[in-house]
Please model this.
Amino acid sequence: MSVKFASRVQQMESSEIRELLKLTENPEVISFAGGVPAPELFPINELIQVTKEVLEESGEQALQYGTTEGFNPLREKIAKRMNKKFKTNFGIENILITNGSQQGLDFTGKIFLDQGDVVLCESPTYLAAINAFKAYEPRFVEVQSDDEGMRIDELESLLKTTQNVKFIYIVPDFQNPSGTSWSPERRKQFMQVVKEYDVVVVEDSPYSEIRFEGATPPSMKSMDEKGQVICLGTFSKTFCPGLRIGWVAAETNILEKYILVKQSADLHTSTLNQRNISRYMDSYDFDANIDKIKEVYKKRRDIMLEAIEEEFPKEVRFTRPMGGLFLWVELPEHMDARDVFTKCIKNKVAFVPGESFFPNNRKKNTLRLNYSNMPEDRIVEGIKRIALVLRDLL
Ligand SMILES: Cc1ncc(COP(=O)(O)O)c(C=O)c1O
Model:
């Protein structure tokens, strides 16, 4: 039978990159490809304890349907935490708990995008955001980015000349894939420009608390004079991704649309998982756990940068992230990172070729390296193996 799928599904073919990445599942491969946290840092024993307590003390509620907005004590903790860390002004009524921030991305597409509407984004940008938005058939317009964030001159001229821009999607802290964090000055300039337009800003910040050094710059939301910034947050990188707990934080006139969409998508996020995180935050020092994560990742970042400096040919450029999980590599322009990947995978080392992080203007000479998920000796060995291939190809 010929099955007639909707056109949006026909666009969602499995990407060539995803097929390539299946090869990295072999445990012998040193993989810098995934974007995953270090599993040895998950607080397993503490979670066993809190799960037991939650089930013993409030099992009936923890296993029952819950409200769409989420578990109130958790919503409250998130609002307070954001206000303290990122100088926002959220109350419980501004928070919707989602299944990871990825669900927030999908809902953002559903709420704002009609076919042909425009999404402005950084170049490169987060691959799974491109894919989530793509389902709603928008047009992507990339705004060139440099070491300090989005180029403001270009943003301004695109906002002036582009019809139907529905939102600007940004990851200002230790971006996936580039590792870049926007400078305080660039953030201010950005907010000054966007406030002149009726356009929504989606500030996606899964990595902002994974900062190794330097002062925390102002969040976009802290400078939002007219309620146009929507924040997406998650416990995936500060706690663990498997519980799938994230949130959308926004003004109530916007959040109510997210709540409606969430209701029809899945009613609510797991009541047990929400209560577990909330209980964990009551019983343990959440910041101390983040400090442990940062210590390990910082060491891994240092080792990777050191190895790259020693081993990679001088023509290769790379970012020096001050936090997060990734760094970004630019090869000489004539090189294609997929060719490097093909040779590397034979030598049992992997990364993600960068081209799929660009919705339109695919730069084939780029690649993303993740440093959070490999022990230090394997990082050194993996970088040596990539360097051998690079030297050979150059
Ligand atoms: C920029 C960005 N946004 C969103 C997500 C989704 O995270 P989660 O759905 O686990 O909260 C990720 C995950 O890697 C990410 O890098």
In short: The pocket of pyridoxal-5'-phosphate is lined by residues 35, 100-102, 126, 171, 176, 204, 206, 234, 236, 241, 246 (CB under 6 Å). The chain has a mean pLDDT of 95.
